[in-house]
Amino acid sequence: MSDKLPTPPANLPTEIVDALNKATPEHLRDAASYAEALAEHMEREARPEEEEVDVADVEERRDDLPDDVPAKATITIKEINDNRYYYWQWRDGDSVTSKYKGPVHPDE
């Protein structure tokens, strides 16, 4: 690793760069961890509204479960451009995987 001080991103405010330059390595690692978690939280908040749906509310869940969707999947409703859609959703390691199921109200 180089002994040269890294160059901060050009879009990072000066006050943040100054504060980071004065921080200890431990505080920098803590700040990096916090910043990553905060960014994920803010990205989730910015996504279209999602809501969990009780499996009992969706008819014939097991009958229409696609082969590539695990049995542990739940159904989520996502609102996109004022339209509501069902998605199969399940955790795969550290990530959440979604697969389109269909519109909530197919008649609309």
How many discrete domains? 2
Task: Return residue spans where pLDDT drops below 50 for at least 5 consecutive residues.
Answer: none
> Helicity range of the residues?
25-40%
- How many helices? The count is 2
Distance between the termini: 59 Å
| Structural Rg | 21 Å
| Mean pLDDT over the full residue set | 79
Oligomeric state, counting identical vs distinct chains? single chain
Following the backbone from N to C, one meets helices and strands in this order, namely HHEEEE
Major sheet: 4 strands, antiparallel
The number of strands is 4
Range of strand content: 25-35%
Alpha-beta content class: alpha+beta
Enumerate the strands of the largest sheet in spatial order, edge to edge or round the barrel.
1-2-3-4
Label the overall shape: elongated
Explain the overall architecture.
Residues 48-57 have a biased composition (Acidic residues). Residues 57-108 form the DUF6788 domain. It comes from Halobaculum magnesiiphilum. Keywords: Plasmid. InterPro entries: DUF6788 (IPR046738). The longest helix is centred in the N-terminal third of the chain and has 22 residues, at 25-46. The chain is an alpha+beta fold. The chain starts with 13 loop residues before the first helix and ends in a 5-residue tail after the last strand. It has a 4-stranded antiparallel sheet, with no helix packed on it. The chain has helices at 14-22, 25-46, and strands spanning 50-53, 74-80, 83-92, 95-103. The chain folds into 2 domains: 14-46; 50-103. It is elongated and about 60 Å long. Helix content is 29%, strand content 28%.
